[in-house]
Amino acid sequence: MTEKLTITGSADLIATIPHLLGNRPKESFVVLTARGNTLGATLRMDAPAESAPLDYAQMMTTYAANDEKATGSFVIVYTDETGGDGQFPYAEHIEALSIELSMARMPVRQVLLVTSAYWGIYGTAEKNPLDAIKDSQANATLTYFGSATDIDVYNPALLGRWAPPVEAPEGTDEDLEMACGTWEAVLDTDGVPDTEAARALAAAFQHRHLRDYLFRDTITTHNGSFGDVLTGKFTGRPDWARVDRAEAIAFELMKVVPAGQRAPMLTLMGWLQWLKGHGSQADRYLKLAAEDVSDFRLAVLLRELINRGHVADVARNENMSYNRRLI
Asked: Contact at 8 Å (CB) between 322 and 276?
C-alpha cells in the first residue's frame, strides 16, 4: 500500500492495530510509538497478570526503546478485567508504564481501553460502541487496499489425528545436499509440496545437523554462520516473501507427520516470527514445540532469548526489518 493513511481520532488508531499485528489482541497491552505526527513501532505483550508493575513497565519500555526515532507513544489496554475499589484495570501498571516511557523520552499521549463490549479513553467513564472501530475510516481504507486481520498459518484443526512417522536420514553429505536442494526448490515455487517431498523434508528437519542448514538457507542473505543467522544478523534485507512462504510450508510439513515430530517445524515458525519482530507469536509457537517434544532444545533456547527481552538484530534495523506497516 502506497496511499497515505490519515488517523483522525482514537477509533482510527485502534482500528490500525489488528492490521499492524495481523490479529486482534486479547488481554494485552499494546504500545504504539510515535515519530512526530507518524506512527512507528507496534509492540504487544500479554496483560501483566501477576507481574510487578515496575518490572512489566521496564520490560515493555525496553522493547519500545528499539525505535530510536520515537518521540511519543500511545498505550492501548485490551482486557475484560475490572479494577477493584472503583479503579480501572491494571492502574498501577499503567502508571508505571507511563513513567518509564516518559523517562525514555516517549511520553504517553493517550491511553485507551478496549473490552469485548466497548472502548473508551482509559480513566474515564467513556464507553463507545465497538462498531465505531469497525466502521472507522482507517479500517475501511486498510481493508479496501487488501489488508487482512487475524492472519495465522497455524491451524491445529487441519493437522489430523494420525500420520505415519518419518525416519530421520543419517545426515551424510548426500543427505544434506538433497535436503537443501529440495527445500530451496519448494521455497522458490508456488503451491505446496506433494506428500513424498513433504515427508522427505519433514524427515530432514528431524536431524539436528540438517535442520540447522535448512533454517539457515531459509534466509538468502545469511553470512554462513548459523549463530549469526539464529540471532538475525544478515548481510542484507531478507526476502520476506520467502520467509512468509517458509512459515506456511512448515505448517504443511506438520500435516504429514504425527505429534512428537512437529517440534522442528514449530520452532522454525517461531524463529521466523521472532525475526519479524513478533515476539508474542514466536513464543506461542516455541511453547507448542517444547510441548510436542518435551523441552525441545532449540525452542527452549529461543524462548529464553525472547523472555529476556532480546530482539532479533534484523528487527532492529528499519531498512531490513519485516514491513507489515501500512501507515
From this structure: yes
